[in-house]
Amino acid sequence: MPNRKGFDESLDELRHLLTAMGDHVIEALEDAVKSLQTMDTAKAKAVVDNDYRLNEMEEKIMDIGSRLIVTQQPVAKDLRRIIVAFKISSDLERMGDLARDVAKVTLRMQGSSLNKLLVDIPRMSDIVIQMTRDSIQSYLDENTDLAHKVGNDDDQVDHMYSGMIRELHQHMLENAADGPQVMLLNLTGRYIERIADHATNIGESVVYLVTGRRPDLNN
């Protein structure tokens, strides 16, 4: 490899950018759910407006990784480090899009009030935020045990989402006028459940980075 020191410095930059993307996703999801709980449209709009930062960081990761492949011609685990950085940045960018979609639900409900107490959505969000933290930490530490934990936590989110759908369906049967709002809350739960799926994808990428084999942690 032509310049090992320069290669390692660029890998550190990739890790820094991925950590920043993870922090941004967590903040966006926290603010999006809070905006829904309090019907704070200004907070929701800020989440939507700041989404471009994730796109910028993803593009920077693509630029750095592509340059490394062309100039350093990495092989084996060094090549996997770059491929995994591409994959994780893509998952994080999509997670940010889904957090933005949650914020858009608040904007779509502007002028109305919640007719149903939000319980499951904040609980799901708390678990997904921890999954996101764990997935990034598993990447930084190359910790496959923590990566597998993220996959196990996804099962909990799936279970909560299924229960939430049943409860919302029952609420709509008993309160037909709340139908439009119930549909939006259903969508919100779906967005958060999909963020959990992407966090699990990151766990899979970590296992691939360490072992060279990509497991299915999302089943």
Automatic annotation (TrEMBL):
Its main location: cytoplasm. It is found in: Cytoplasm. One of its GO terms (biological process) is negative regulation of phosphate metabolic process. Pfam families: PhoU (PF01895). Coiled coil: none annotated. Keywords: Cytoplasm, Phosphate transport, Transport. Residues 19-105, 121-206 form the PhoU domain. One of its GO terms (cellular component) is cytoplasm. Belongs to the PhoU family. Plays a role in the regulation of phosphate uptake. Homodimer. This is Phosphate-specific transport system accessory protein PhoU. It comes from Paenibacillus bovis.
